[in-house]
Amino acid sequence: MASTRGPKKELGQHWLRDPEILAEITEAAELDEDDVVLEIGPGLGTLTSRLLARAGRVVAVEFDRDLACKLPGQFPGKNLDVINEDILQFDLNQLPAGYKVVANVPYYITSKIVEKLMTAENKPSLAALLVQKEVAERIAAEPGEMNILAVSTQLFAEAELDIEVSRQFFTPPPKVDSQVVVLRTRTEPLVASEDQKDFFRVVKAGFSAKRKKLRSSLSGGLGVSKDTAEQLLKKADISPDVRAEDLAIDDWQRLLAVQKNIKHNEGKYNEQSN
């Protein structure tokens, strides 16, 4: 039987008990009996019970010591490992390749959790995350509404919106509604690992000035003249008058390729001059 202890506000805890919603979250994870599932913040174990019924093994990482101590006793004989640890400190390499993640994520650490999962050496094959609705929409954004979180997530995974969950289904009710976002990790990231640092430097430069056209934001963010920024954009077949949120990931890839090519040619010219 699940604990009846109240949620701790300082840990961002909001209990979700509705059986239909819990079933839909479990369904979004596309589980089978061979799957190992990482559940982040199992809380009272209401979702844990459904994961155990569908997956081969559940690794539940719970920061709240009281809940972590009680959880194993709720599921005797089940293939459940409960770890009392901060998920941001948890070593994902402990898990087998191809593991999946299911979580009702505390709002205040959503971005950090997504970043940890997507940049880990051992990434999940799929993650079904219940997060703040606005954040889910940002993660799964398309050109016209892109943002750094969307770019940095979609570089590593395909993002798809799933079930919406009204705030009224939580105890206590949060101030906003929630939504499940499903991340399916790509076999290979869209940008090679050796180019990712330069890629994000260009992306962050593009988003450095809200509501400004790319010509201006790249100029300021990269420390180049507006004329140079405009030439970079034109060579990448991107209008200097669009904004960063209008670009798809492949636009950023072309922009990076143009910049790398210019630097390469400059290097060759300097070598010849010397």
Tell me about this structure.
By secondary structure, this protein is α/β, with parallel strands linked by helices. The chain has two domains: 9-185, 3-Layer(aba) Sandwich (Rossmann fold), CATH 3.40.50; 193-273, rRNA adenine dimethylase, C-terminal domain (Helicase, Ruva Protein, domain 3, Orthogonal Bundle), CATH 1.10.8.100. The chain is 39% helix and 18% strand. It is built from ten helices and nine strands. It has helices at residues 19-28, 46-54, 65-74, 110-119, 133-139, 148-154, 196-206, 214-222, 226-235, 249-273, and strands spanning 15-16, 36-40, 57-62, 80-84, 100-104, 126-132, 157-165, 170-171, 178-185. Strands 4-3-2-5-6-9-7 form a seven-stranded mixed sheet. The protein has a two-stranded antiparallel sheet with strand order 1-8. Strand 5 (100-104), helix 4 (110-119) and strand 6 form a beta-alpha-beta unit. Helix 1 (19-28) packs across helix 2 and helix 7 (196-206) crosses helix 8. It is elongated. Residues 7-12 and 267-274 have low confidence and may be disordered.
Short summary of the structure?
This protein is of the alpha/beta class and 274 residues long. The protein has helices at 19-28, 46-54, 65-74, 110-119, 133-139, 148-154, 196-206, 214-222, 226-235, 249-273, and strands at residues 15-16, 36-40, 57-62, 80-84, 100-104, 126-132, 157-165, 170-171, 178-185. α1 packs across α2 (46-54).
